[in-house]
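Two proteins, back to back. First:
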Amino acid sequence: MKKLIFMILTALSVLMARTYAAADTAPSKTTADKTVPQVKQQAEQDAQRSGTEKPEDKKQELDEIEKARQALQYGLESEILEVVNKVEKRDFETMQDDFNRLFMETKSPAVREGLFGLYQKYKNTQLTEAAVAVLADYEAQQRTLVKAVLSYLATVKPELTPALNEALQKMLTQDTAEYGAETVSVLGEIGSDEEAVFLADYFDSLTIDDAKQELILKQTIMAALEKLHSEDTRAFLSERAQDENENIYVRSSAIAGLAQMGNPDIVPLLAEFFEQPEPQLREAAIRGAASFDTDETRKLILQGFKDSYYKVRLESLKTAQKTKMAEAAPYVLYRAKYDPTDAVRFAAVETLAVLNTAEGNTWLAETFRDSKKSEKLRVTILSSVLKHNSAALAADLDTVVLATVTDNKQKKLRYEFGKEIAKIENTATAEICKAFLQSDDVLTKSIGLDMFKTNAPADARALVEAIAQDEKQGALQRRAQRLLK
């Protein structure tokens, strides 16, 4: 021990002696300030002459995909989650094996939770078996992980295997307060007649000490039964729908579920519900009417456009759009022009694009051109038309959008137009894509790359190649290079 201490003290003495010697021989600060730049400049000149210049601290940037892969393999939990939370669909598909391997290897509940969220986002079913395994042993898992798994299953809608069904029903009956609503939602998405009967029976026997929680779960069960609309639950749903002492939301789901069974005998009950003072019942009546195509149900839907409750009007718009109900066009146009609720106006705009009538298309084009109209309305028109009926703006699309590219006063509108165009696959925006790529504004050019990524117009490729070869473009250069691969 004494020998070890002696060796440590000796080493420290030598180190301190070297430090003092270096301090004694170091030039003064004033001298150093003058000398260092001269020496550095001379070294740079020598390097330039020899052709071996290497800028200080400059490192070869790794490809973004490779950087993400390294983070997944070697990174901290926070670094892994940053990749998981930000990865785009194309990169997710490219790195599928990396994410699969990460899921198998990680012991972090937070990372596994993040991965379930990622696979849910892109509706990928590859984690289904792992999800079932988590639920089978749910009591040993973190609560947030279990809820992430249930959310994942409700979205990707896998086949309801016996093992999954058993796990869900066990959780519902044994841990109702904690996971009841989530398990019911999954059963509502992927269940069949057998599960519908199970849920109806469970509804009748359900008792929870917390009355509010019990009501929420019962409403969730009824929403699931509406989606399943099994003939085996007809009597149960009919009884609930006509029970005036029952909760409004329970009755709403019951009548809508009955209507989806397609029996026209329910139409008079829909008309009766539409005359009720409770707006939720009127909304349910319109939702149910969408399952039929009779004079009575069409009249009911048209009346819904004039209802004082905005959700009833929205339901009529959804039905008109789904069924392409031509006779609703004047009602839809009026809603697009004058409805006091933005959600209804914007839904009406999309419905107009779907209905594709001459009068509706004229209004869409005129409003899109009108700079005095709200930017949000004009962006909604652009988005809706590109999705459903690009011909409606064929004469105005380039003119209106290209004008914003050269006018910085319209920069915000330019960005919003560009973001919508970049979301939607189409063949009508090649010139706009080129204009965005040629802009000096970094964000505009970036949105142009997004457009190219979505639609890849052939005559814009040369512009992307130019960005990919320009080192001054920084992050944009790397993005362009990836798009060209």
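And the second protein:
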Amino acid sequence: MANSFKNSYFYISYIRRVFLSLLLCFSFGLTDEFDATWIENWQKASEILDSLKISKKQKEDILNSIKNSIKALKENENELKELETLSLCVKNGDIECAKKSIEKYPKLLSYKLHPYGSLLTVTLNMKIDKTKVDFFDEKMFDFLVSKGHRIYGDDNMLPFLLLLNEAVSDEKCLEIIKKMRDDGMDLGITMPHLENISLDTEALDNYKPKTAAYILKNGQKSQFFNAYPLKIAYGHIMVFFTENNASFEKELKATPKSIELSKSEKYKKFIDREFEVLKVYLEANGDEKFIAEIEKIFTELNDKESLEKLEKLGYKLKKDNLENIRRQNFGK
């Protein structure tokens, strides 16, 4: 069971990141070699979508949306050329260059570069693998907004890009999400084409507790919210042990390697982040029954400190697990 949960949550996280990175590649593809880049990106898009477990209709919808956006842009060649210039200015972080393009064609700020993103998405870049790092040009983002770029409009993808991007701080993300809500965004939206991903769980999943608390306080909880502790148990903790070559055995049985890892500073630092989002979850009246899965892991690891933290958060431990561990460690 542990492996099936782990694999499913890991797969969803991977698909989400690849999908969003794919969409961003079109905004970065607006160069002087637009036609060649478009063909190359289109082929790449089709290949990536073929590799994902989505329906044929979902693939067609995504590709048609991209195609329609490009067609709309090509209808006005002069503005398209200037949009290419502006896109490069934004990508390169050149505010003076961007200012000149906007002064020439102010309505470029209202254009979409692909079906889900405006120029604001060009200020973001995400890694797909561990060899790269996420990037966020905060100064350019703020500049575009100051020049009249709507911070939300009807773009339901941008808030998810901000939540997923590690370079966007929790504080900055909260600031932007608040402005998006003021601009008409419903905090209950789900990600386009990936409707099992919602703002509340995405904020928790990307360790943005302040943003998550705001979303949960001011919006309706998603249908995925109450089961979030399962994501912590199998999509975070179990994956942590697997990635550090200390996997559990079947039926959530700890191994000597996993127990040894649980005593390390690396584990303690990791688990502290999990408690940050778990605290937000419980303060938002999340269902405690799924926390039992997290408790099982801590019990197997003989992790008394983490079990005590669960108690301090108001969670009632099952089967006197903490007391049993105290007896085992009596006198040590």
